[in-house]
Design a protein that fits this description.
This protein has 209 residues and is of the alpha/beta class. It has 9 helices and 8 strands. The protein has a 5-stranded parallel sheet, sandwiched between helices. The structure holds adenosine monophosphate. Adenosine monophosphate binds next to helix 2 and helix 3.
C-alpha cells in the first residue's frame, strides 16, 4: 500500500506514520526529517533548504523531489510506503503522478489551528532519529532522552510560535488544496485528530482497513 498522510504541521502525521509503519510493516518517509538530516550534515540540499525551513516556508520543489525520488527507489519501499509531509503542493502531487507512483489512499488528519499552536509548543523531537514526542501527551520515558534510539530530544527551531503561524498559513495556502486534488480522484479519507495518540491511532487504523 502506498499511502499519503495529509495534515497541518503538528496534526500528528509523524506519530501516526510510526503507528501505521508498525502495523503494516511499510516504511514511513518524512521529507521534513530527511531535510533536517541534510541540514545537519551540511549537504548541498541541506544548504539550499535551511533558510526556507527556518522561516516556515516550503523548500523549493526541485530540492524536495530529488530527495524523495532517491528515497522511494530504495529496496525497503518495494512493498509500499507512507509519505509524511510529501506532497505539500499540487505540483508535487503531479510529479508523483508523472513518476508513475500509484497512490492507494490519502489520509487527512484534521486538527483545528488553535489546537495545533498549543501542541507545537510542547513538541520535542529526537536530534538523531527524528522521532517525535510531546511533553504532556506523549512524553519520553526518561526526560530529554529518545525512547527509540537514546538520542537527545530538543525543540525544533521552527516550532517557535512566530514560525508556527507562518507554517499554518503556508499549509492553508499551498497544501490544503491537495484535499480537493485527491478527493477528486476518490482517494481522500479524513480522520479527526483526537486529544490522545491512542484515540487517533484507532481511527487511523480503522480508516485503513
Ligand atoms: P515537517 O517536518 O514535515 O513539518 O517539515 C519541516 C519543513 O521542511 C517544512 O516547514 C518545509 O520547510 C520543509 N518541507 C518538508 N517537506 C516538504 C515538502 N514536501 N515540500 C517543501 N518543503 C518541505
Amino acid at each position: 500500500m502506498n499511502l499519503i498522510l495529509l495534515g497541518a504541521p503538528g496534526a500528528g502525521k509523524g506519530t501516526q506514520a510510526e503507528v501505521i509503519c508498525d502495523n503494516l510493516k511499510i516504511p514511513a518517509i518524512s521529507t521534513g526529517n530527511m531535510l533536517r538530516e541534510a541540514v545537519k550534515n551540511g549537504t548541498k540540499s541541506g544548504l539550499e533548504a535551511k533558510s526556507f525551513m527556518d522561516s516556515g516556508a516550503l523548500v523549493p520543489d526541485e530540492v524536495v523531489i530529488g530527495i524523495l525520488k532517491d528515497r522511494i527507489a530504495e529496496d525497503d519501499c518495494k512493498g509500499g510506503f507512507i509519505l509524511d509531509g510529501f506532497p505539500r503542493t499540487v505540483p508535487q502531487a503531479e510529479v508523483l503522478d508523472k513518476m508513475g507512483v500509484k497512490i492507494d489512499k490519502v489520509l487527512e488528519i484534521a486538527v483545528e489551528d488553535e489546537t495545533i499552536t498549543q501542541r507545537l509548543s510542547g513538541r520535542r523531537v529526537c536530534e538523531d532519529c527524528g522521532n517525535s514526542y510531546h511533553i504532556e501527551f506523549k512524553p519520553t520515558k526518561v526526560e530529554g532522552v529518545c525512547d527509540k534510539c537514546g538520542g537527545k530530544t530538543v525543540q525544533r527551531k521552527d516550532d517557535a510560535p512566530e514560525t508556527v503561524l507562518s507554517r499554518l498559513k503556508t499549509y492553508h495556502e499551498q497544501t490544503a488544496p491537495l484535499k480537493d486534488f485527491y478527493a477528486a480522484k476518490g482517494l481522500l479519507t479524513t480522520v479527526h485528530g483526537k486529544d490522545t495518540v491512542e484515540e487517533t491511532s484507532a481511527l487511523v487504523l480503522e480508516a485503513l482497513k
